[in-house]
Amino acid sequence: MYVFRGETTGRGFVNLFLTTEADIVSELDQYDYPLPKHLIAQVPLPYRADARLMVVNRADNSVAHKHIRDLADILRPHDCLVLNDTRVVPARLVGRRTATGGRWEGLFIDADEHGLWRLLCKTRGKLVPGEAVTLLDAQGGTDTRLHLGTKQPDGLWIARVESDEETFSLLSRVGRVPLPPYIRKGRMVEADRENYQTVYASTPGAVAAPTAGLHFTKRLLDRIEERGTTICRLTLHVGPGTFRPISTDSLADHRMHAEWGRLTAETAEMIGKCRASGGRVVAAGTTTTRLLETAAEDDGSLRPFAGRTDLFIRPPFKFRAIDALLTNFHLPRTTLLVLVRTFGGDELIRRAYEEAIREQYRFYSYGDAMLILTRGEG
Questions:
Q1: Which pLDDT does position 376 carry in this prediction?
Q2: Please, are residues 142 and 125 in contact by the beta-carbon 8 Å criterion?
Q3: DSSP character for 174?
Q4: What are the structural domains of the chain?
Q5: Which residues of the chain have pLDDT under 50?
Q6: How far is CA 342 from CA 138, 143, 271, 313, 328, in A?
Q7: Neighbouring-strand partners of residue 274
């Protein structure tokens, strides 16, 4: 059995890796790296655009150090910056097993047209179909109840809520910000309600933030547009599998989580005009990248898309839709790191990560960023 594990060494390094009883060396070993624990950002910077920006240029294999606020000068007038406008919902749930009073935690995934919820559940002991859970509001007071139905093969529970209230309205009262566990062990503070959300978030449905977008401010976006860069938006609701480590020995055996997304005909046309004029398509984040590449035709043109995508971008994937990628620094052995190394070039991104650690960049969701260019800067 393979187990994802994190250990802190005597020098304060966090090693995240898979182990087996036989200690088999897997394909995933090349996507591992040691990280000093203090480089895992626990809070964002007071001003988002002050985050550092490592500019990685594939054209000349160079690495430069700048800041997010410099993006308006780095992007070109005919470029197109593509943003993911998904909005994070307060999906982390806390409650009590109604019959026993035992502590229960859950993660809301989504709801169907009948109002049934899909959940991840965690508690001591074994949950059974038909069991009731009393949800606690943000102040710890008892709120509504939900009834567990069947457990699906993927580990998710189907549940019915004892309320006619609209789902996102109910979650705003009983839910917490679904922070990843490496940020304060998932424990939110009130500031996270704003911090763990992009300034342009508009379409609710994500259970994790599209973290590359957390760096933008409205002022920076205005400056980028004033310089002539086109900004357009799509939607991909980030799911719980985003930060989950790959648990198979081979990349080819990994089953990618599916996420719902939408690329409108208008946005596809805007991006097409940008590329036709010689501009670069700059994807803000791996989620934006996955949806664009899902919607890309063989010639690089984009078709409108609405539905679920389970695209796993790994070597030797051929990118057809994007020319540049803005992204954060990602956990070892994750599909996000595989995507970034596939786009940026394995050796160059390895070197960039090593330099980021030497230069004390801040890592993961609240950390700094990297801009990978394939066609030069400025």
A1: 61
A2: no
A3: H
A4: 39-88+194-373 (3.40.1780.10), 92-176 (2.40.10.240)
A5: 1-24
A6: 41, 46, 22, 7, 15
A7: none
